[in-house]
Structure formats: structure tokens, C-alpha cells
Automatic annotation (TrEMBL):
<protein>
    <submittedName>
        <fullName>Class A beta-lactamase-related serine hydrolase</fullName>
    </submittedName>
</protein>
<feature type="region of interest" description="Disordered">
    <location>
        <begin position="210"/>
        <end position="232"/>
    </location>
</feature>
<keyword id="KW-0378">Hydrolase</keyword>
<dbReference type="Pfam" id="PF00144">
    <property type="entry name" value="Beta-lactamase"/>
</dbReference>
<dbReference type="InterPro" id="IPR052907">
    <property type="entry name" value="Beta-lactamase/esterase"/>
</dbReference>
<dbReference type="InterPro" id="IPR012338">
    <property type="entry name" value="Beta-lactam/transpept-like"/>
</dbReference>
<dbReference type="GO" id="GO:0016787">
    <property type="term" value="F:hydrolase activity"/>
</dbReference>
<dbReference type="InterPro" id="IPR001466">
    <property type="entry name" value="Beta-lactam-related"/>
</dbReference>
<feature type="domain" description="Beta-lactamase-related">
    <location>
        <begin position="22"/>
        <end position="389"/>
    </location>
</feature>
Length: 395
């Protein structure tokens, strides 16, 4: 595949790594963008946006970035907190009274943003008819009891995070998170990112394709150990294969795969679920982090506080260690960063391999987008290898 774009000579190693991923068959189509000190130093793309038609990946090809969305949603909510419209330390029920049901009256906005609210899964299956009715899905969560005592543990709220945070945004603004993002983050800055893609954007978006999946063939020579035993990675492998595990309940309801094409379906692209619905170009997502660390979206003090780790250690949903500030991932097994970035980088990964990352100490902002989904094998490290090459190039 021919890789196109610009790469500052100082970052030649980054292009080598990007080229290698294509040469090794790990990529179908992908893009990678980096800003250093607010200036573009890497803007690369290549491959095909649609393997069925052979449509090429262009400079402005957007794609669904899954959970990279969460950092953008968190930022929208933190903007409102800066204006005094919501208090992060206060109970959610202050702005959403119905949420207080079943002992949730003391659950704080901070606990929601840091995956500590105990609501990682929706008890009842969400029907397709509700996929575009975010308040209806949020009402289901308001009517549930927490799975664990809020604040005593953390676990990745893969999909519910967005409906919880999104309903808080709606209650204090009367607007959806997607509308806030369009009107106050993406639009004014000309960023190519949409939480709810317009028809023309959805039409030119790259189509996601399946890659190697963790657990698809078992991945082990021997069966996984019994429940509660084995290493975290062995327990993770077992959870992936167990349809009833908390992990699969959290990741699979509402289930995009109820629609033909899953994440490629127009409903998923246009509804903009605030946990996984962001459609963006690599340049647009990197530009978001560029402006964020520059203090143009949030005040520097707000960002620094949001980066502060609120939860760290074994994840009740993902099993392996994870770490969260207010909506932003911090360095952990679930957010791999180069060693020199372990204490300075924040951002969010997305299912299949996408990445958005900011580092105010090093003046770096970067994003990697792709359409070959993978959760296993060498392909799972594509973004990490690119990020490592960026940091190595700083020398």
C-alpha cells in the first residue's frame, strides 16, 4: 500500500513504523497525525477505506473511533463544570433527580466520569428502536441499582458511560452531547470530528473490517483456569469467551451488531452514542488534543485536575489494570504509553486499535485511526509502536 502525506524529517522513524504496519499486513486503511508545540509534524494516511469497493483512504477520510469518544464527551462535560453549570463533586441527582433511585442518591459526577458509579451494564436488553433515543436508555440506568457500592471500586463503563455523562449534559444544557461538541468544540475550531455524523460524512467514512480477535480461537494451548483463578490475562481470556461475563454485558448492550454492518450502519454513525460514536479523521482528533493541551478548550488547571488519577488498579469489568482521571485514561495495561510518557500522557483508546493522546509536558498531541479492527496479535500494538516512535524522535 502507498503511504501518503507529510512527515517532518525529525520524525522519519514514525513513517518507517507506519509503512511497516502496511507491509506486514496489519493494516487495511489507516491514518496517523501528530502535533508538536501546536505545529503539525506528522500527517500520514494510506490503504483502502472500503475493502469491498477498493475505495482509497484519503487525507480527509473519517472513521468511527469507538471509545476515543469518551475523552471528547468528558471534555464537553468539564466545559460545563467550568461555567458553574454542574458541580463535578456533587451528586448526579442534583441535576437528574430520577437517578437517585435504588440508593444512587450520593453517586457523584466525578464517580461517573472515573468509572466508579457501579453501572457498567444495562440490566435489560436495549431494543433497536431505542438506539437513537438516548434519554430512554439513560432512564434504564436511572432505574437500576449499582452492581457495586459506588466509589469503592472501578470498572470500565464501556457503553453506559456515554448515556450517563450524556444525560447530565442534556439536563444542564437541553442539548445532546453531540450538539455541544459540534457547537462549542469541533465547529469553532474547524476540527473534523462529529459525535453524530451528518449524511455526507457518513457516506465517505471508512468501513470497519474485522481483524484478529482475542479469544477467537481460544488463543491458548490449554483451557483457561476455573473462575477466580489464574493470572489476570488468563481471567481476561475467559471473560472474553464467556457471554455472561460482566465484560461482555458491558460491551454488548446496546449491541450495534443487531444492525447489519454493526458500527458501519448509518444509525450508529448518526446517533452519536457519547461513549463510542465519534467519527473523526486522525488530524481532527489530534487537533482536539492540540487545542486541549494549549488551554483553548479547557483551562490548564481544569485539565491538570481532570488528568489526576481517580481510579487505578484491577478493573472490575476489564480485569486487567486500568487507570482513569475524569474521563481520560492514564497509563496502564489498558492505555499503553512509552515509559517517558507514563506520568505525562492522557487520552483514550478505541475498540479495535484507535488512539487519541495528549501530553502537555512534552507539547504532544496525536491520533491514530484505522479500519482493520483487531484485539489480538501484533496488530493490537500498532498505535503503541507509533507513539513510541514519536517519543523516540524527540531525542
Amino acid at each position: 500500500m502507498t503511504v501518503q502525506g507529510h512527515c517532518d524529517p525529525r520524525f522519519a522513524r514514525v513513517r518507517e513504523v507506519f509503512d511497516t504496519s502496511f507491509a506486514g499486513g496489519e493494516e487495511l486503511g489507516a491514518a496517523f497525525a501528530v502535533y508538536l508545540g501546536g505545529e503539525p509534524v506528522v500527517d500520514l494516511w494510506g490503504g483502502v477505506a472500503d475493502r469491498h469497493t477498493g475505495r482509497a483512504w484519503e487525507r480527509d477520510t473519517p472513521v468511527l473511533t469507538y471509545s476515543c469518544t469518551k475523552a471528547v464527551t468528558a471534555t464537553a462535560l468539564l466545559m460545563l463544570a467550568e461555567r458553574g453549570l454542574v458541580d463535578v463533586a456533587a451528586p448526579v441527582a442534583e441535576v437528574w433527580p430520577e437517578f437517585a433511585a435504588h440508593g444512587k442518591q450520593d453517586v457523584t459526577v466525578e464517580q461517573v466520569l472515573s468509572h466508579q458509579s457501579g453501572l457498567p451494564a444495562i440490566d435489560e436488553e436495549v431494543p433497536v428502536e431505542e438506539f437513537e433515543d438516548h434519554p430512554a436508555i439513560a432512564a434504564r440506568l436511572a432505574g437500576q441499582a449499582p452492581i457495586w457500592e459506588p466509589g469503592t471500586a472501578h470498572g470500565y463503563h464501556a457503553l453506559t458511560y456515554g448515556f450517563l455523562a450524556g444525560e447530565i449534559v442534556r439536563r444542564v444544557t437541553g442539548r445532546s452531547t453531540g450538539e455541544v461538541v459540534a457547537e462549542e468544540i469541533a465547529g469553532p475550531r474547524g476540527l473534523d470530528l462529529w459525535l453524530g455524523a451528518p449524511d455526507d460524512v457518513a457516506a465517505r467514512a471508512a468501513r470497519l473490517s474485522a481483524g484478529e480477535r482475542a479469544g477467537s480461537t481460544g488463543g491458548m494451548a490449554t483451557p483457561p483456569p476455573p473462575p477466580g483463578e489464574g493470572t489476570p490475562l488468563e481471567q481476561l481470556a475467559r471473560a472474553v469467551l464467556d457471554k455472561t461475563s460482566l465484560m461482555n454485558r458491558a460491551l454488548g448492550n446496546p449491541n450495534p451488531n443487531k444492525l447489519k454492518g454493526g458500527g458501519n450502519h448509518p444509525v450508529i454513525l448518526r446517533t452519536g452514542w457519547p461513549a463510542m460514536g465519534l467519527v473523526a479523521t486522525a488530524r481532527g482528533l489530534a487537533g482536539f488534543y492540540r487545542d486541549l493541551i494549549a488551554g483553548e478548550i479547557l483551562k490548564h488547571d481544569t485539565l491538570r485536575d481532570a488528568m489526576r488519577r481517580r481510579a487505578h488498579g484491577p478493573d472490575r469489568v476489564l480485569i486487567i489494570d486500568s487507570s482513569f482521571g475524569l474521563g481520560y485514561m492514564r497509563s496502564s495495561m489498558n492505555f499503553l504509553t512509552p515509559r517517558r510518557a507514563a506520568d505525562t500522557a492522557f487520552g483514550h483508546t478505541g475498540l479495535g486499535g484507535s488512539l487519541g493522546l495528549g501530553d502537555p509536558d512534552h507539547g504532544l498531541a496525536m491520533a491514530y485511526t484505522m479500519n482493520r479492527m483487531t484485539t489480538a496479535g501484533p496488530g493490537v500494538l500498532r498505535a503503541y509502536r507509533l507513539a513510541s516512535a514519536v517519543y523516540d524522535s524527540l531525542d
